[in-house]
Amino acid sequence: MNVSSDHLRRIGLELLQAAGAGLQEAALVSENLVAAELRGVPTHGINLLPAILERIAAGQMDIPTQLKVIADELAITHIDGGNGFGQTAAAEGMRRSIEKARRYGIGFSLIRNTNNIGLLALYSLMAAKEGMVGVCACNGAASMAPWGGAEPFFGTNPFSIAVPGGAGDPVVLDMSTTVVARGKIRRAARLKERIPFGWALDASGAPTDDPEAAIQGTLMPVGEYKGYGMAFFIDLICGLLSGSSYARAVRTFHKPDGPTGVGVMTLAIDINRFMPLDHFSKLIDEHIRMIRGSTKARGQNRIYLPGEIEVEREDLNKTRGVEVDSPVVKAIDALLEKRGIGLRLGDGEVQA
Amino acid sequence: MNVSSDHLRRIGLELLQAAGAGLQEAALVSENLVAAELRGVPTHGINLLPAILERIAAGQMDIPTQLKVIADELAITHIDGGNGFGQTAAAEGMRRSIEKARRYGIGFSLIRNTNNIGLLALYSLMAAKEGMVGVCACNGAASMAPWGGAEPFFGTNPFSIAVPGGAGDPVVLDMSTTVVARGKIRRAARLKERIPFGWALDASGAPTDDPEAAIQGTLMPVGEYKGYGMAFFIDLICGLLSGSSYARAVRTFHKPDGPTGVGVMTLAIDINRFMPLDHFSKLIDEHIRMIRGSTKARGQNRIYLPGEIEVEREDLNKTRGVEVDSPVVKAIDALLEKRGIGLRLGDGEVQA
């Protein structure tokens, strides 16, 4: 079923408020989930709503989110996320990093004790929209083995970098340090599809195309030992150094086994300290033209910038609606009914 | 031939001084080249000496290096490398980043207009040795195509991250954003060896195992579009934002076609602002034990930390000497003779 993004946003807002979030927080989280759907990353989208509500109902997330600033010294901020919404914590971390960068040239925040932050690009883009370089990273529940290992140890530990795009959209990279994010494998399991070899190993360490076996096993790091190294350092900075959980101690968001203990970092660099922003804009416009104009590989007729496919999907999905899998439709409609909310996903269906 | 590292260092020192470097600068550069050899990265090692001397002789590098501070404001520094030694510029950038981090919690430097900086790990390790997280990245001559492209556009754009290792050695990741560094392909060409498929594409965009065809073609980004994205952002920050060359305008160090225009970034984060360093040390010691103790993949009996293989090679090479390929022996001995320096590589040979 294709559902309008406005309708999805409204459903998210209602469900999150019913679960105890204030209007502003519910809007932020709902916006992040719907943005993920619009950008074609449904694994970070509204399929998370049932997990969020289950977690709150089980008393394993403290909503509304109460952030606590542990340290705010010159160019750095250290925040305790109060086991609340990761979206609230990450947005506040980036807001402060931007403020620090405006003053000191660079700003850095570490956040401990929070939960799933959804789509990372939204935080790095906050900085890009302020004329800055933005970086965001977080750790997550164990799913990748150290290179040479067979046991889940590191999360998919994603990171995102964004810069203003001159006359065009900002350019943004948002990647996990595994070959694919775990959500893609969970989605394949939900849809009873096979996965390509090279995405994951089974529990014995052998390559597999069975998503269920992959969930029991480990995800392949991107570029083998390189992805392992990146995941290691993201875990170390976001988890260990922030005072949050790290390595095997980070719990999955998808089962209510207790607070996840996710850690997050946000960083902003003020472009203006190095070059006037309008000059940067001119250079990047020209740079983008050069990339697009460079020789294509055989069979390719276009070169995409990092994040460009997501922006195009967003434009498309804004008009044609967001495709929602039927298991997700069922789960969310059941939640709406249970909470006595008079909305159903189908009310916002967009006809092809 | 296996040569003692002390002897290599002395040869580097003599040749670099003969080419116009002061004692301190010659020692720094020589140390970096020999460290690369010791750590098993000969592509960043003393085979660079002939290229360095040729470049200086051709008047395309300005030695001794004269750095110029363009901006030094609160937590950031902007440096012009004066088209000198990259090693001198990167070390100064990191020295200043560390100083800033001590004061502001985080410090960031951008360097424009410099050259090859050698082994990046040595700069990130400077921060680790001061109880900080250290990050270093640089751009380089075009060798990777944008994903979907067939034309060299980005460099291998490597980066390095290091942290103090508690009771043990610091942990350090040092990786290019291509599947392999270009030096490995040049080395295969020099030794007339084939390369594995998956390292590179030929000029038409087809996979190749011929190092000469690969040199004419492009290097594969690590993790496909992910490596392209990382290379893009490293080029943008180190090159474009620093005011240095970027994209196709960066020239290779291996032919004296004019200043390379390499750009560099260094970043340091003071661990003490987030957690007492001795507590961090305890946590990381335990973390390392957990990684090492985690389940091995079938056929593996050990899990290595990022950078650990390099440290073991360093220990080994310190006693058995550094293996130097015969074309490199010939080239360096010829330089020593030409400069009237009474040393030869063979004088420092270590017998097995």
Task: Describe, in plain words, how this protein is organized in 3D.
The mean pLDDT of chain A is 95. With 352 residues, chain A is an alpha+beta fold. Helix content of chain A is 40%, strand content 15%. Chain A contains 11 helices and 11 strands. In chain A, strand 2 and strand 3 form a beta hairpin. Chain A folds into 3 domains: 89 residues, Hypothetical Oxidoreductase Yiak, Chain: A, domain 1; 198 residues, Malate/L-lactate/L-sulpholactate dehydrogenase, NADPH binding domain (Ribosomal Protein S8, Chain: A, domain 1); 41 residues, Wheat Germ Agglutinin (Isolectin 2), domain 1 (2-Layer Sandwich), CATH 3.30.60.50. The relative contact order of chain A is 0.17. In chain A, the strands form 3 sheets. The first copy, chain A, has a 7-stranded mixed β-sheet, with helices on both faces. A two-stranded antiparallel ribbon of chain A has the order 1-11. The first copy, chain A, is globular, with a radius of gyration of 20 Å. At the A-B interface, strand 4, strand 7, helix 8 and helix 9 of A face strand 4, strand 7, helix 8 and helix 9 of B.
